[in-house]
Amino acid sequence: MKLQDKHLSTLLIALAVLVAAALVILDLPLDQGRSSLSYQGESIGSYYPASPSQGFALLLAEPEGSERYRLKPIIRLAQEADLPVLTLNLEEVDLAFAMEALSNTAGVEEEDILLAAYGRASQTLLEEAAYLEGGEAGAGLALFAPLTSPEAFEPGEITLPTLILGTTSDDVAPPEQLAQLYNSLSGDEILATGFGIKADQQDISLRIVSGVFHAHNTYSREITTAFSQWLWDTYAIQIPEVSPGSTVRPLLWAGLYLFWGLAMVFLYRQLSHSALEVSYSLLSVKGAPSGRYITRKSLYWQLALPLAAVIFGVLWLLPLELPLLSIAFLSWLAANAGLSCYLYRSGKMPGVSTLARPPLAPLGGKRVGLSLLLTAVTFLWGVVLARSGFMGWDASLPHWIAFAIALPICGLASGLFTYESLVMEEFKISLPVRIGLQLVQFLPLAAAGAFCVPINYWSGVLICVIGLATLWAVLLLCRVVQYLSGSLVTSGLCGGLLLAAFFTLAAV
């Protein structure tokens, strides 16, 4: 790798850290206004105070897992409209008790409380609202990408003004399911076909727009516009800005460009003997490694899997409140670093005998600094991805099928296009052996793509496979660009830009 490439890599890593940190810091003003609400000695949830100048308050039912972070755009919308907000888990708190607590705290009547939910929490909210006074509890219901059982409800069971809001690109709550829920509540009979679906019947409103919920602290403008318009038409509640967090969106995509650009550099070299290996082991072998060294090293890396599982369990049990995705990234880094350091210190570095140990690159301040930057960007982007709702964790059957398809795609890509595979190819090591040895290094990538992406429906499996196939094609393109340009970083950034463009288009 050229010297200027090393400097450019360090600069890009630093920029990615700054962007990720900025995205996390931008959460702080909203979190600083939050307080824990207790009523009659019982903890209710998180309260965001505001002056109820328009006479309404908002109660948000939180889903479990990373999906709850997708409520932040709704909280921002409500605060811009001067609506006090209470977020809570309806599995733990009774709805009537929570409404009483919010009414006394915010100074509004219970019939002026808007009820809202996202995803899996919608089923519980609908059941609770239908139970309270024949469906006349609160001022209205807003359901964002609701995951419900439509057959559980009948027309007239919910008499409150209700908004069912979803998107044409959402696999979590597809338009067909939203239309079924609308038909069950309203008694209407519509089919969810085409774009821009809008239906109203007996105070039940259905809006399916072209947008995406999967964005850090902001929704697509079509989503916020539909929600704001419903508030105005139904309650004359005016929201000054219909796209909260719009300044965050450019930062997010700029950060993703940097992140994917760096990721392609790391994946293409597989953190091998070059300077980029410091993110794993702080060790770097001088000179060209032998095929035996590369082969044994790839084999020994598989020992890092159980070690990573142990570290993951320890970090998960500690009261750190870290996203599972960040814990997984840190565990993988720590396991590989610990294993590499142990093997070297004990004289058991794979493929290297005690008498013929190659010299190590000096462990200077620059290498330590680069390692810390790489660890920081990994951790911060894990936090960003988990808190934004981009990535959660779901081990349902479609995800296992996606993983079974994704793993060989990643293995074939690693066996053909990474640096270590090229070294093994020069030493006439067969392709099946190369794929088998390299496969374990792509396990985190395949697992992230298959289990962390929301693909609750079968079409998501195809999306996951297309994304990984795109990665495979980009790796091949990176190899071609490197031959033409002679620069690894240039090829990695080209691949990163293409990947970021692909995922951006897929998101919007």
TrEMBL record:
Q: Does the keyword Transmembrane helix apply?
A: yes
UniProt xrefs under InterPro entries: AB_hydrolase_fold
Q: What's the superkingdom here?
A: Bacteria
Q: Which SUPFAM superfamilies match?
A: alpha/beta-Hydrolases (SSF53474)
Task: Report if keyword Membrane is assigned.
Answer: yes
Bilayer-spanning residue ranges: 251-268, 299-318, 324-344, 365-385, 397-419, 431-451, 457-481, 488-507
Which Gene3D superfamilies is this protein grouped with? alpha/beta hydrolase
Q: Which UniProt keywords apply?
A: Membrane, Transmembrane, Transmembrane helix
- The protein's name is Uncharacterized protein
Annotated organism of origin: uncultured Anaerotruncus sp
